[in-house]
């Protein structure tokens, strides 16, 4: 078995891009098995959530978002039929 290196993103993914928390605050991402700090990641707050919701709403209301809604969730490869 070969070990694989995992890249840990330290920023939040908001509106199609990786961004720091607006406050610039971070918190430690810790491996629970070893206690080792793997990375310091963005500690997002309410303002970051608002920014993410605005981006999601804009995507939902966009032409591509409307097309996806018309075609139904089964058109998305990440949604499997029940």
Write a structural description.
This protein has 82 residues and is an alpha+beta fold. Helix content is 30%, strand content 21%. The chain has 2 helices and 4 strands. The strands form 2 sheets. A two-stranded antiparallel sheet has the order 1-2. It is flat and about 45 Å long. The protein starts with 11 loop residues before the first strand and ends in an 11-residue tail after the last helix.
| Helicity level | 25-40%
Which structural class best describes the helix and strand composition? alpha+beta
Contiguous uncertain segments of 5+ residues: none
Query: Gap between N and C termini, in Å?
Result: 35 Å
Shape: flat
Count of DSSP strands:
4
Biggest sheet strand order reads 1-2
Task: Please state the CA-atom Rg, rounded to the nearest Å.
Answer: 17 Å
- The secondary-structure element order is EEEEHH
Range of strand content: 15-25%
Q: Main beta sheet, described? A: 2 strands, antiparallel
Number of helices in the DSSP assignment? 2
Average pLDDT metric = 83
Keywords:
2 helices, alpha+beta, 4 strands, two-stranded antiparallel sheet, flat, two-stranded antiparallel ribbon, single chain, 82 residues
Summarize the structure.
The chain is an alpha+beta fold. The protein has 2 helices and 4 strands, in the order E-E-E-E-H-H. It has a domain at 12-62.
């Amino acid at each position: 078995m070969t070990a694989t290196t995992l890249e840990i993103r330290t920023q939040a993914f908001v509106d199609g891009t990786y961004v720091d928390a607006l406050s610039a605050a971070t918190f430690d991402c810790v491996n629970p098995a070893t206690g080792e700090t793997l990375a310091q990641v963005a500690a997002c707050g309410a303002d970051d959530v608002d920014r993410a919701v605005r981006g999601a709403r804009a995507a939902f209301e966009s032409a591509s978002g409307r097309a996806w809604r018309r075609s139904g969730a089964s058109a998305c490869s990440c949604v499997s039929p029940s």
